[in-house]
Amino acid sequence: MKKKIIIISLIAALVLACVSSILYSRSLYNKLEVATSNEKAFAAQLDKTKGENYVFQLRIDQLELFNDSISDKLKKVQKENNIKDSKIKEFQYIATEYGKKDTVVLTDTIFKEQDFELDTVVGDHWMNTKLNLKYPNFICVKPNVKSEKEVVIYTKKETVDPPKKFFLCRWFQKRHTVIKVIVNEENPYIENEESIFIQNVKN
Question: What residues contact 146, with CB distance under 8 A and at least 6 apart?
Fold first, then answer.
């Protein structure tokens, strides 16, 4: 009887050790997958020629370790909207710049002095125009517009039906989890007119 108990105990211990080893190996494999994905994301960030990006896979506490200006901006939007770390699904940061150069060379002389040349910039960091005038008939205008967007995607519990006015009634209303998006545009001259976000739901 004692031998059977010992054998069963050894088998149970062996099975437990195998299961633990498999789970540990799977955990290491998942961490390796995430690390490889993040490595590619960093490489893609350095390579400005590509038109696609990889998604960084980080925990909120890891994002805070970055301690760079972009991470600070994302966390600032989260803090301003009182969103808990556990509710965050995704952060996004999008920076774009527009510039177009237009040159006009007239047939007539419009500037009298032969050494005349004006090269100046009018505007500010977000929107400016570079103006270049040169003897005898050269005019060049180059407008420039910058945009920086912080996007925070998070979950929130809301009532299925419109919330009741009386707070006690709201307590007993049926709720569901929705995904909400905040788009914060840094450029004060740009207004977000419309944004549509679609999630692929797998049945």
Answer: 95, 96, 97, 98, 125, 126, 127, 187
Number of domains into which the chain is organized: 2
In a domain, 110, yes or no: yes
Give pLDDT tens digits for 89-142.
889 898 999 999 999 888 888 888 888 899 999 999 999 999 999 999 999 999
Overall pTM > 0.90: no
30 lies in which domain range?
Answer: 1-55
The answer to the question of residue 65 being in a domain is no
User: 14 lies in a domain?
Assistant: yes
DSSP string, the chain: -HHHHHHHHHHHHHHHHHHHHHHHHHHHHHHHHHHHHHHHHHHHHH-TT-S--PPP---HHHHHHH-SHHHHHHHHHHHHTT--GGGEEEEEEEEEEEE--EEEE-SS-----TT-EEEEEEE-SSEEEEEEEETTTEEEEEEEEEEEEEEEEEEEEEESSPPPSSHHHHHTS-EEEEEEEEEEE--TT--------------
